[in-house]
Amino acid sequence: AQTVTQSQPEMSVQEAETVTLSCTYDTSESNYYLFWYKQPPSRQMILVIRQEAYKQQNATENRFSVNFQKAAKSFSLKISDSQLGDTAMYFCAFMRRGTSYGKLTFGQGTILTVHP
Amino acid sequence: EPEVTQTPSHQVTQMGQEVILRCVPISNHLYFYWYRQILGQKVEFLVSFYNNEISEKSEIFDDQFSVERPDGSNFTLKIRSTKLEDSAMYFCASRPLAGVDEQFFGPGTRLTVL
């Protein structure tokens, strides 16, 4: 079974600054995906960024980037130039690749508050 | 842009009553999921559904729960006899193909059991 751990229950950052959210996971699988989902106060889950485990290059999406360390089983999210709209709960999630069913295993979440 | 929809947005029920939560996945998607999030806690997988049958379910998904896709568009989660601890946000998600990893989530249904 896979586990995902987010050790930072809450983080805060000033607008325009950079913040990094941590995530570690445990799995015996070698082929998998990792995701960061954002859940704003509206509660809708929104995909922020994905990483395929077989790719060594870290994924980036505009202001969002990840630091994927496969050997250490670490998957952190860096948000650059933080904006007020980034205020949300952020979930790290794991999904095995190569299976049709695609169950997501989530971490506990990190509440991020961006201050003006 | 197509999106997953869920109804109702908020359901209040008495303990012991049956509830049906409804989801309309994106039309060409083939894989369907229900997740649960108890307030302040992490999102937990309940069940996945493919080709008109359950493909995987969690320990939470006991005999009180059932899913079906009655008409090719709706995807429902039924809780037969609700308990106080079933109070949570329930999210439906769908995914188009086996090779596509992204799941698209609905806005959720908040279930309150009194």
How many angstroms does the end-to-end distance of chain B come to?
Answer: 37 Å
> Average pLDDT value of chain B?
93
Beta-strand residue fraction of chain B: over 45%
From the spread of the alpha carbons, the general shape of chain A counts as globular
Tally the beta strands of chain B.
Answer: 11
Q: What form of chain B results from the Cα inertia axes?
A: globular
Global structural class of chain B: mainly beta
Q: Tell me the distance between the termini of chain A.
A: 41 Å
Q: What sequence of helices (H) and strands (E) makes up the elements of chain A?
A: EEEEEEEEEEEE
Number-wise, the strands of chain A total 12
Written overview of the protein:
- The complex is a heterodimer of chains A (116) and B (114).
- Chain A has no helices and 12 strands.
- Chain A is globular and about 45 Å long.
- In chain A, 0% of the residues lie in helices and 52% in strands.
- The mean pLDDT of chain A is 93.
- In chain A, β5 (32-39) and β6 (46-52) form a beta hairpin.
- Chain A has strands at residues 3-5, 10-14, 19-21, 24-26, 32-39, 46-52, 60-61, 64-69, 74-79, 88-96, 105-106, 110-115.
- In chain A, strands 2, 5, 6, 10, 11 and 12 form a 6-stranded mixed sheet that branches.
- Chain B has 114 residues and is mainly beta.
- Chain B has strands at 5-7, 10-13, 19-24, 31-37, 43-50, 53-57, 65-68, 75-79, 88-95, 104-105, 109-113.
- The radius of gyration of chain B is 13 Å and the shape is globular.
- The chains are: A mainly beta (116), B mainly beta (114).
- Chain A binds chain B through residues 33, 37, 42-47, 50, 52, 91, 93, 95, 97, 100-109, and chain B through 31, 33, 35, 41-45, 48, 50, 55-56, 89, 91, 93, 95, 98, 101-103, 105-108, 110.
